[in-house]
Amino acid sequence: MTDDNSHGKYNALIYACNALAPVVTAVAHPCDEFSLAGAADAAAAKLIKPILVGPQARIGRLAAAHGIDITAFAAVDQPHSEASAAKAVELVRSGTADVLMKGSLHTDELMSAVLRKDIGLRTGRRVSHVFVMDVPSYHKPLLVTDAAVNLFPTLEDKVDIVQNAIDLAHVLRIATPKVAILSAVETITSKIPSTIDAAALCKMADRGQITGALLDGPLALDNAISREAAEAKNIVSEVAGDADILLVPDLEAGNMLAKELTFLAKADAAGIVLGARVPIILTSRADSVRTRMASCAIAAILVHARRMAKARLEA
């Protein structure tokens, strides 16, 4: 992991885990170098205690070929990716693991096991994805949701998506996160449905249907992250120019935004899935070591925060 100061926001996240015990993590089908090394690196940093779920002979050959030491890790042999996903979910349901982590299988395959009504990890909240982005040119962490799970969310879906992100922001010690609900324009028009959704979400927040944050929208991206752009358009808002959370209209917009920030603005994008029984770490082959570490750190912080909340309720 580099000590590049331009990514100090992630370094602070990882540093915050120094006082926390590693969380037991079921790693589903870590059958390529990137996913196996990512789990090993996070274990070496004492963020997670991996359980490697997948074809053990294949994983062993992979580790030997790339010099990855997995001798200290627990393992559960499974013949293929579908079985690995199902078993990893089972380990979480039984309480053996605290976190689920994607290996080299497809995201759809893992999420299919997570979302099974009978033996999955569903809760009353819709499952959604959040990128916690470290953008060197932005003054604080930036959460982007949903860019990986919900394709074309309805208004009702967006209520859960934004509440999941708000709850994560609280755990990351953002007391009152500022949520910018993105569209192409700042005015409400029936010709652009996302502007109608934005207006409805803001009113829902006024009525207590969404809690714990300041919401404003519709806002175009420039007005959400630039005070100068907001002032130029005479937008008076506590959110404009200082957003903590960007709620995108749909997955296509969110995915493009996250990748633009990653490849054009040199941002890192740690990914986490929320709304299930446990945090789910989604990693990509394109992720840097620092990004994988940050994803694991976020999951660890979430697990420990939930444990503390549960202990307070039981006290």
Q: Which helices and strands occur, and which strands form pairs?
A:
Elements: H1 8-16, E1 23-28, H2 33-44, E2 48-54, H3 56-66, E3 74-77, H4 81-93, E4 99-102, H5 107-114, E5 128-134, E6 142-145, H6 155-171, E7 178-182, H7 193-206, E8 214-219, H8 221-225, H9 227-232, E9 245-247, H10 251-264, E10 268-274, E11 280-281, H11 289-314
Parallel strand pairs: 1-2, 1-4, 2-3, 4-11, 6-9, 7-8, 7-9
Antiparallel strand pairs: 5-6, 5-10, 10-11
Written overview of the protein:
This protein has 315 residues and is α/β, with parallel strands linked by helices. The chain has two domains: 1-122, Isopropylmalate Dehydrogenase, CATH 3.40.718.10; 123-275, Isopropylmalate Dehydrogenase (3-Layer(aba) Sandwich). Helix content is 43%, strand content 17%. It contains eleven helices and eleven strands. The protein has an eleven-stranded mixed beta sheet, with helices on both faces. Helix 1 (8-16) packs across helix 11 (289-314) and helix 4 runs parallel beside helix 5. Residues 1-5 have low confidence and may be disordered.
Label this structure with key terms.
alpha/beta; Isopropylmalate Dehydrogenase; 2 domains; eleven-stranded mixed sheet; 11 helices; disordered N terminus
